Structures are given as structure tokens and as C-alpha cells.
């Protein structure tokens, strides 16, 4: 099913060496500080995604406080969740210019500010700005770096690492729900949001833990992707095709731009040296000029890389499989969210409320979802298993469950389907891995930003679309059927596009499995 690794732009050598010089494995790749990165990402998922899963508690408080319609009030939560994902492509620009650490720290401050300002809300529209936009953008500025950093620090165990870090969403849903219930009961919803804002400042600590890999570390990580000297000629023959098919950006414009930038900085240094005999005031002005020049160089270079990734001749959109991946993402997330919205009503319709109160079906999805992420990550990291095949199998299982759920009318059958939904939806932890296989680690931030942006659009529009279908048909069944069929269309794009584009995610090589 798969093309060769050279076609997809990945090359693996038999020996861990560059030329004839052996390379000592870096202890921070797949170990050491890499596990601190996983821990940091785990906490980010608890504080951001877990908090968003618990917003139903605050939604009830807002309904009682502001006496607005359920639809208008629900937009506060939808905006926060949607904007967190939709801003992904723009957060990629920040990461390119400032790095993951600085972006995450700034995002943590912005997220906390959104929670604190929301405590003083006088109406729902005020919450749109403070909580929906401010806290949402801050969440996005922390969430994307948390995912990207795990991809940078892991090579052999990427799927497992992503699975462990994203389990924070499930744990966070339980912890934050209990915490917000307690805070609202004891202190009121305004003080609860103020306290939650203070807790969210821990996102800055998580960002501080995102220590960037040095150039030496990065080169040692990717030595497993370099062929030996005997294959160098073959690598060159595939380079042009790789650039066209996978959106790998040309380095020549960067080199020309770097040369121009060096000339600017050299001229500033020359002026500074010539001004040593001048007064201290002039020297201070020259230092400011130098700092501004360096900042300008960084911004121009980062924006150039970001712009060429999306709009250049060799942009990410020239990779047909990646484009199919985006189409899939537009339909996928809403199909996962809809059961959480409509299951309580379905349970009530079938007179299963007493059994559901003992062990809610949504809790079954959340609990099994945690195990699904870890288990699918472990399976995907096996040397004989393709991550892409695991990803597609999980998607087919999930869409089958979505389509058959309305047919189940007993608690046991619904519980089984919900367990399968929770387990198969564990493929979310594989999304960064599949994205990295498609575009490479260098473009992971920009590429994954696009993917989560598509997910954000799906999360923002999917539930209202399902509600609109119910208003027309007065049945929940059609919401599942229509959204499930749209989801199936997205999966079929993923399935057939590799055969059309002749470019597919790489399989694991024996050499990679043994590194």
C-alpha cells in the first residue's frame, strides 16, 4: 500500500553515523528531558482541554445569571473551544518566530487573563470577548507548542508519547469538572473563574519546561533519517520530487535572506565599533538599533517560512495526502462531539435514565478514551505495524459506531457502542504522528496548526448543525446518520487519495525500529 521512504522524503541509514564518524545517541531524544516534555504536555491537556470539557458547569451558572437563551449562552463555550483550535495556523507563525517556549508562556498569561476578566462579566456578550476570544487564543498558544514539542523530542516512541500526553484531556475532564463544581458551590461562579485563572498561570510553568532542542541535538535526532554515503546519489535524485510532493520548502531563498540579514547586522556592528569613541548616549542608541535590527530579522525570517509553508510554490497544500487529511479533519471532530451532546436525550427517550445515573454513558466514553490513546500509541510504535493503518482502522471503527448508535435501544448495547467510540477515538493521539510522517518535523507546527484549525471549524459548526437537523426532523437519529456519512466521506478521501497522489505516509523501517 505504501510508497518507498525515499518518495515520501524520509531516508534511513543502516548505521548511526555521518560519513565515517559515529554519532553518540542524545540522551534527551526518547529519554531524559523528553519525558519532562511529555509531563508538561500532559498538564497542558489537563488545564486547557480538561477545563473546556467541564464548561457545562459554568454554562448552567451563566444561564441562571444572565437569563439568555441556551443557544446564545452556548456560544461562549463553543467560541472558546473553537478558537483554541482555529488559531492554529497563526500560532504556527509565533512558533516559527519565537519558539515553542516563549509562545506557550505568553499563551499561559493570556489564558489566565481571559479567565480573570470573565469573573467581572456583566452580560454574555462580554464573555464572548474575554472568555471566548481572549482565553481561547491563549489556550491555542499553549496547546499547539505542547503537541509540537513532543514530536520534536521523540523518534522511536512518538505515538506512545503523544498518547500519554493527550490522556490529560480525559483526566482533566474529571478533575476540572469536580473542581469547578466545588468552587461554584463554595465561592460562586465569579470567584471560581478568578481562582481558575490563577490556576491557569501554571501553564507558564509548563511552557518554561519546553526547553528547545539545540541544533546539535536536532541533528543527532535526524541522523537515523540520513542514508549512508553509498545512498547519497540516490537521495539527490529524489530531492526534486520530494519538494514537489511533500511541501518541503526550498532552502535557497532562506540562504539568500540570511545573507541579506547578516549584511544588516554587520553594518550595525560596524557602526557600533566606529562609535566607541562617542558618548555613552550614542552607544545606547546603537544598542537599541542593533536589538531592533535583530528582532526585524527574526520576524522577517519567521514570516517568510510561515508564508511559504502555506502560500509558496512548494507549500504544504501541494501534498495531496495532506490536503485529504485536512478534508477529513473538517468532518471528524464533530462526529466525536455529537454523542456527548445527544446521548443524555437519547437515554431519556428510551427510559434508561435510572441506569445511566448509576454509570453515565458519557463517562464510559471518557474513561475508555484514555486507555484507547495509550493502547493505540503502543500498537502504532510496534516495528511491524503501520501508524497510518492503525489510524484508518480506528476511524472506520468510530464511524461505524456513530452510524449504528441510534439503532441501540438498551443500556448494555449503548454501553458497548460507547466503549468502542471511546477506544477508537483514541486515534487523536496519532494525529500529530501522522502529520509529522506526511510533512516532516520541520513543518509540523504549521501543518498541525492547519489540522487543528479544521478540527476547530468542525467543533464550532458541528453541534449547531446537528441541532438544526433535529429541529427539522424532530429525531436524533438523523443527526448521527448525516454526520456519520459526512465523516465517512472524509475517511474515504484519506483512503483513496494515496493511490491518486501516489504519496503516502512512510512505513517504519527495520533500522528505525532498532534505533
Name some characteristics of this structure.
Growth Hormone, Chain: A; MOT14 protein; 515 residues; 2 domains; MFS_trans_sf; transmembrane helix; membrane; 77% helix; monocarboxylic acid transmembrane transporter activity
Terminal-residue CA separation: 24 Å
What is the CATH-assigned architecture of the largest domain? Answer: Up-down Bundle
Name the CATH class of the largest domain: Mainly Alpha
SS content category? mainly alpha
- Mean residue pLDDT: 75
- CATH H-level homologous superfamily name of the largest domain: MFS general substrate transporter like domains
Uncertain ranges: 1-23, 222-255, 509-513
Main beta-sheet annotation: 2 strands, antiparallel
Q: Please tally the β strands and state the result.
A: 2
Order of strands in the sheet with the most strands? Answer: 1-2
Oligomer: single chain
Tell the overall outline: globular
Sheet-strand content, in percent, reads under 5%
- Tally of contiguous helical segments: 24
Q: How many domains is the backbone divided into?
A: 2
Organism: Anseranas semipalmata (Magpie goose)
InterPro entries: MFS (IPR011701), MFS_dom (IPR020846), MFS_trans_sf (IPR036259), Proton-linked_MCT (IPR050327)
Subcellular location: Membrane
Pfam family, one: MFS_1
